[in-house]
């Protein structure tokens, strides 16, 4: 029984002099207050004192600090992971039209680009390799773990240049395969799961051995988490490498700008056979349970704002582990486009979207807004 039904049951009525009826706003005149009192005692005789008290919420958010106290968790710089697109042309620095303010860059540009961000409090990046030379692509994605390739060279470079920086690597084949799919294919064009898992886990191992703090397979082949975890254990490096699974990765139209950036658009078909259907909440839950059982250290939901219920499921299913959300390229581009069109203020929306993701349960957020949050946030 709630307090309010309890006082109603006891037939409780506010005492005539109690100051709990209607409003106690200081600017009200006495006559307004007494009119409100008489309204409360005649028209609404069942109004209970508890109802009136619980209607007084504004005090909790009239001051900016009190407003921040209403959030379970505050957004901080350490929650943010910044995606970096590293190309095989060392001097490259090219902006990506569909992904405003983001660049593809070569190894020589990486340290100068990151230095001011690290000074402002950047804690973590996730690396994506982008081979610009189409001749390195093949059916097996051989270039993904090329020791001279942009990701492995990038890991080594960043470990040396920024010893405190946490380095994650996206693990997938789509940037490196001629067909642009996230694995190795059967003759009929469908994914060969066995061969794909073997190849993806080799690539993850190569990144881990090069010094990545975290490997994050985004390929979605069944069983890849177990395969990677076993290889990490076998190699004796599982104690220093975090395994972040893109567990609940939905297929939709929000990855377009990323595919422009990474040159990873499938040459035929789509990714619907290995990414989740947008309505597939149950499948997402099963995938998260499965990945946790296979040894994931972090589960991720992607995209984020269209899938806040899935993030909250992730928090429940993975209650003893960190939950990540990827605020993907299409979500970022939409916010930019709408701000450009005068629909809303960019910064306000960036906070609102990100705080929604946080509220749903994620405490790690992969975001293209990271450089701006470093300016906007104090800690
Ligand atoms: N598999 C590669 C990968 N890793 C992250 C993204 C999307 C990230 C974004 O849109 O920002 C993709 C693209 C895809 O699966 O098509
Ligand atoms: Zn992929
Ligand atoms: Zn299939």
UniProtKB/TrEMBL annotation:
SUPFAM superfamilies attached to this UniProt entry: Aldolase (SSF51569)
GO cellular component: cytosol
Stated role: Catalyzes an early step in the biosynthesis of tetrapyrroles. Binds two molecules of 5-aminolevulinate per subunit, each at a distinct site, and catalyzes their condensation to form porphobilinogen.
Amino acids binding 5-aminolevulinate 2: 329, 368
Catalytic reaction list: 2 5-aminolevulinate = porphobilinogen + 2 H2O + H(+)
Gene Ontology biological process terms from the UniProt entry: heme biosynthetic process
Source organism of this protein record: Acrodontium crateriforme
Protein name as catalogued: Delta-aminolevulinic acid dehydratase
EC number(s) given by UniProt: 4.2.1.24
Domain of life according to the entry: Eukaryota
Renumbered residue ranges of the record's region Disordered: 1-39
Family: Belongs to the ALAD family.
Annotated active site: 249 (schiff-base intermediate with substrate), 302 (schiff-base intermediate with substrate)
Cofactor section: Zn(2+)
Low complexity composition-biased segments: 13-39
UniProt binding sites for 5-aminolevulinate 1: 259, 271
Keywords (A to Z) from UniProt: Heme biosynthesis, Lyase, Metal-binding, Porphyrin biosynthesis, Zinc
Pathway the protein takes part in: Porphyrin-containing compound metabolism; protoporphyrin-IX biosynthesis; coproporphyrinogen-III from 5-aminolevulinate: step 1/4
Subunit and partners: Homooctamer.
EC top class named in words: lyase
